[in-house]
Amino acid sequence: MSKPAKDLVRFLSASALVMLVAVTLTFTVDPLQIFRHARLFAAMYSQDSRLQDAGLIHSQDFDTVFIGTSLAIHFRQSDIDRILGGHSLKLSLNGSTSVEQNFVLAAALERHPKRVLWELDDWIFGDAPDIDSNAFLPANLYRRNARGFASYLFSGAMARESAWILARSIPPLEKPVAWLTTGVIFKFPIANVDDINVLRPGFDVAGTYNAKRAIAAFRYITDPVRSAYLAEGIDYDMRVRNFERDMAGLIAAHPDVTFEIYFPPYSILQWVAMRDASPGTFDQVYRFTAYVSRRLTSFPNVRLYDFREVRDVTHDLNNYADVIHHSPTIDLKVLSWLAEGKYRVDPGAPTASLDRLKAQMEAYRVGDGER
C-alpha cells in the first residue's frame, strides 16, 4: 500500500475513533436525558426550550403540562404545584406559534398527563412553517426516531456539553467548571429543573416592569412608521383554520384530559394601541376571540378563563415591561385566579368578558404625560 493510501487509512481510522468516542460520551452522559434519567452524572438543563423540552418530556414525572408563549416562560413549576396542586412540567416556548405548541404538547400528551394549563395568545394562530421546516426545533428528537437519535448522538455540540457535564461531576472540578458556566459557552448551565427560564436572583423587577417602560412601548408601536404591524396576521379565516387544527383538534382528541386555558392579562395599552393606531384591528381580534371563546367553552373538558378584563392589573402600568409582558408578581396572581376559578368564562355567555374589555378600551384615555 502506498504512503498516501496509508495516510488516508490512518486519517479515516482516527476520524472514526474520534466520532466513536464522541458518540459514546454523548450516549453515556445523555445531556438531554433522552435515553434515561440522569443517574451517573448530575442533571443539567438548558434555557433553550425548543431543545430542552424534548428531553424534559421523557425525563420528568408529571401529571400537569403548562404551555404558552413568553408570557408563560418565567413561571416556576414549584409555584404551579404549590398553588394548583399536582406535579407540573413547564414547556412554554418564547414566540411560539400554534404549530409549535401543538407539536410539543402532543408529544407530552403521549405521557398521559391529567391536566393541561394553556396560556393563549390570539396571535399564535398566524400561518407558520410546518414543523419539519423549523430549524430551531428538533422535531425528530420529539418523535424519538432513528434520525432524531442520530442527530443527537453525532452532534459535536452535544459531545462538548457531555464533556462539560462529565467534568462538573468530578468533585475537584465541580466548582471551577460551574464558575466558568455562562449559558453562552455552554447550553446546559442550569442544575435545577425549577430554574429553567425563570428570572435570576437579584433581577431588577422594578426597573424592568414599570409604567415608564409600558408607555414607551405604547408610543413605539403606535408610531405611524410601525403601527401597521398591529394588523399583521389578523385574517379571520386563516386564524380560525389554524385554531381548529392546532388547538380544537388536539382538545377533541384527548377527552380524558382537562384543559385549563386562559387569555393572559395584557395591559390596557395593547387594546388602546389598536383603537388609536390601527382602526378595525380590534374588531378583527374581537371577532376571532369571540369564535375561540364559543368553541372552547363548548368542550366538556375545557375550562376557559379571560384575564384581559382584570382592570386592577391591566390598568396598573407598573405591572408591565411593555404593553403585554407582565411581571412575576402577576404570574402568581394568574395561578391564584386559576386555583380559585376566578374570571372563568361562562359557557352561557362566552363573549361577556370580551364585551367588558371592549368597554374598558373605549373608555380609556391616555393622559398627556403618557403619550
Structure description:
The model has no long low-confidence stretch (mean pLDDT 90). With 371 residues, the protein is α/β, with parallel strands linked by helices. The protein starts with a helix and ends in an 8-residue tail after the last helix. The longest helix is centred in the N-terminal third of the chain and has 27 residues, at 3-29. The protein has helices at 3-29, 49-59, 77-84, 98-109, 139-143, 146-153, 156-168, 171-180, 205-208, 211-222, 236-252, 268-277, 281-297, 311-314, 328-340, 352-363; strands spanning 64-67, 88-90, 115-119, 258-263, 302-306. Helix 12 packs across helix 16 (352-363). The protein has a domain at 203-371. It is built from 16 helices and five strands.
Please state the average pLDDT score.
90
Q: Numbering strands along the chain, what is their spatial order in the largest sheet?
A: 2-1-3-4-5
> What integer value in Å does the Rg equal?
24 Å
Total count of strands: 5
Q: SSE string, helix = H, strand = E?
A: HHEHEHEHHHHHHHEHHEHHH
- Annotation field: number of helices: 16
Tell me the major beta sheet. 5 strands, parallel
Terminal Cα span? 81 Å
Strand content: 5-15%
- Which residues form runs of ≥5 with pLDDT under 50? none
Helix content: 40-55%
Structural category is: alpha/beta
Shape, per Cα inertia axes:
elongated
